[in-house]
Write a structure and sequence with these properties.
It is found in: Cytoplasm. With 496 residues, this protein is an alpha/beta fold. It contains 14 helices and 26 strands. Helix 5 (173-184) links the parallel strand 9 and strand 10 (188-191). The longest helix is centred in the first third of the chain and has 26 residues, at 107-132. Bound molecules: glyceraldehyde-3-phosphate (G3H). The site of glyceraldehyde-3-phosphate has 8 residues, from loops.
């Protein structure tokens, strides 16, 4: 159970502590931040409202710890990461329980998130050993006008302190996707979890504590974005920011200093369906892609662009599947669970009302109870409706009927977002042409968008973000290049 057994140390009465300098602490602010259970809409957990002074202390210890961590052999860093991964997987039940209570993730998906996170950490440790154990060796005579008098040795070195800010929808997985690469590359890590998801993240951080990482190397500060958000992202001690979330990321990128940024800020992933597509496959992927975790995924299918000639048939198939989705509490493993907050539910409702006013076809009746919104497919959506462009982050999916493929590509490319997209057709040649024309970081052919497997590159263009993620790319992004050049007095050519 959360906050018990191995986790007793992280709880103080009714409030979870924050993690600084290898210890679990209460904030000197004396203030707590409540976490509302999206299902009951009542306060379920409380976390510390850390102060700017406490952030300063965390940054100081992170800086000190990083200096010795960078001198820790790579195999030892990997060994500790493997240990953390295995503790995390052993502790999947209490962590999944937190995910259910604070973000209403269906119980079985919550367990999957924790297990996936353990696997991600282990893979990161292995990949780090492979790619950071290698460098480049360059010879000067490959550039015109040079003799072989210079040997250039290139290696990847840590950046320093990495600030990780994951989103509410994957507070464990999208935290470790930043923590693992940062640590294996020799950086220290300061985590600012989302408020909804903070307690899951604190449990996850305790697994790193139990694995025996040096004190100060990992810290976790909780609190209000309004009090410590800007202070963290503009802190002079931060050498890199890895952020996943909404358009706050754009504001962060404008305020952050001259440091590397990795940002994933959402998407409006289009699903283009051609006449020759396998409509059963498409319908199954629309359900999985559009409605899993109630549509609260950056990579969810967020607009279907289907050729008019097959639109009726596709809509019927999707409607039949929507009817089978179970709706209710996450504890009961329902497919559709309450969205994360009342304001989120209100925003989704605003998009639905706009579509209603502009006469979209409602394939189901719109229904909402508290934060729970029943799955809704909107047919005959037109570009003048907000739902055609905005990201609901909820179980509402628009269908736009198109008469040419170019129309579909045009709609996809007219979006401010450019995370992923997908195309369904049996013609691989057409699929390749469409993929090339779609201005998104990734295009999936004959499957719904998805970030995983977690070692695949994952990136958005336009307002969807900057930098590429995925295990290998994140490790590389969290390093910088150092070269040492050996200058010889006379040219020297190895003769064998
Ligand atoms: O919400 C953003 C996540 O990066 C999406 O990850 O495709 O594994 O659900 P996912």
């Amino acid at each position: 159970m959360a906050g018990t057994g191995l986790f007793t140390e992280i709880l103080d009465g009714e409030a979870y502590k924050y993690y600084s300098d290898g210890e679990w602490k209460k904030s000197s602010s004396g203030k707590l931040v409540p976490i509302i259970n999206p299902t009951t809409r009542k306060v379920h957990y409380k976390v510390q409202a850390c102060t700017q002074e406490e952030v300063n202390k965390v940054m100081e210890s992170a800086k000190t710890a990083q200096k010795s961590w960078a001198k820790t052999p790579l195999w030892k860093r990997a060994e500790l990461l493997h240990k953390a991964a295995s503790i995390l997987k052993e502790q999947k039940a209490p962590i999944a329980e937190c995910l259910v209570k604070e973000i209403a993730k269906p119980a079985k998906d919550a367990v999957t998130e924790v297990v996936r996170s353990g696997d991600l950490i282990s893979y990161t440790a292995e990949e780090g050993v492979r790619i950071l154990g290698e460098g480049k060796f360059l010879l000067s005579d490959s550039f015109p006008g040079n003799e072989r008098t210079k040997y250039c040795l290139t290696s990847k070195i840590p950046l320093g302190v990495v600030l990780a800010i994951p989103p509410f929808n994957y507070p464990v997985n999208l935290a470790v996707s930043k923590i693992g690469p940062a640590l294996i590359a020799g950086n220290s890590l300061v985590l600012k979890p989302p408020t909804q998801g903070a307690v899951s993240a604190l449990h996850m951080v305790h697994c790193f504590h139990l694995a025996g990482f040096p004190k100060g190397l990992i810290s976790c500060v909780t609190g209000k974005g309004s009090e410590i958000g800007d202070f963290l992202t503009m802190h002079p001690g931060v050498n890199c920011i890895s952020f996943t979330g909404g358009d706050t990321g754009i504001a962060i990128s404008k305020k952050a200093g001259m440091i590397p940024l990795q940002m994933e800020l959402g998407g409006k992933d289009a699903c283009i369906v051609l006449e020759d597509a396998d409509l059963d496959l498409v319908a199954a992927n629309i359900i999985k892609g559009g409605f899993s975790y109630s549509g609260q995924r950056c990579t969810a299918v967020k607009v279907v662009l289907v050729m008019e000639s097959v639109a009726d048939a596709l809509v019927e198939k999707v409607k039949a599947k929507v009817a089978k989705l179970t709706v209710g509490p996450p504890e009961e493993n329902c497919d559709i669970t309450p969205v994360v907050s009342e304001s989120s539910a209100n925003y989704i409702e605003g998009l639905v009302m706009d579509a209603m006013k502009k006469e979209a076809t409602f394939c189901q009746e719109y229904k909402r109870e508290g934060n729970l919104i029943w799955p809704l497919l909107l047919d005959n959506v037109r570009p003048d409706m907000r739902i055609a462009w905005e990201e609901p982050f909820g179980p509402v999916l628009p269908v736009i009927r198109i008469t040419t493929v170019e129309e579909g590509i045009h709609h996809c490319n007219a979006s401010n977002f450019g995370l992923q997209g997908c195309v369904f057709t049996k013609d691989i040649n057409k699929a390749m042409l469409i993929s090339d024309a779609m201005e998104t970081g990734t295009v999936q052919i004959n499957s719904a968008p998805a970030r995983g497997p977690d070692h695949f590159p994952f990136q958005g263009i336009k307002d969807s973000g900057i930098g590429s993620q995925g295990i290998t790319n994140s490790i590389n992004m969290m390093t910088k290049i150092k070269t040492t050049v050996i200058n010889l007095p006379t040219p020297s050519y190895t003769m064998g």
